[in-house]
Amino acid sequence: MSRTTFIPGNHVDTNFEKTGPLREKLLGEITRFERQLNALKGSEQPVDFGMMQTYKELIHSRREMLDQLPPAF
């Protein structure tokens, strides 16, 4: 009789789901935030540095998520 023992932290949970839809969503969000950031920079209104930083952080976080996705199938 063969017995398999589970040892926490010693296995790889491979997800073979297609990453295309998530990749597209992240790219769309990055593009949208970059456009909003550029519009904010080119605005005649007083500069809102807090909002500019927020867009930069949103863009950065989505790029990091995109970089961590497994290759698309």
Kindly describe this structure.
Helix content is 58%, strand content 0%. The chain is an all-alpha fold. It is elongated, with a radius of gyration of 20 Å.
Class of secondary structure makeup: mainly alpha
Strand proportion, as a percent range, falls in under 5%
> What does the average pLDDT come to?
85
Order of helices and strands: HH
Largest sheet: none
State the shape.
elongated
Tally the helices: what do you get? 2
Which percent range fits the helix content? 55-70%
Got a strand count? 0
Short description:
The protein has helices at 20-41, 49-68.
Descriptive terms for the model:
elongated, 73 residues, mainly alpha
Write the layout of secondary structure elements.
Elements lengths: L19 H22 L7 H20 L5
Helix pairs in contact: 1-2
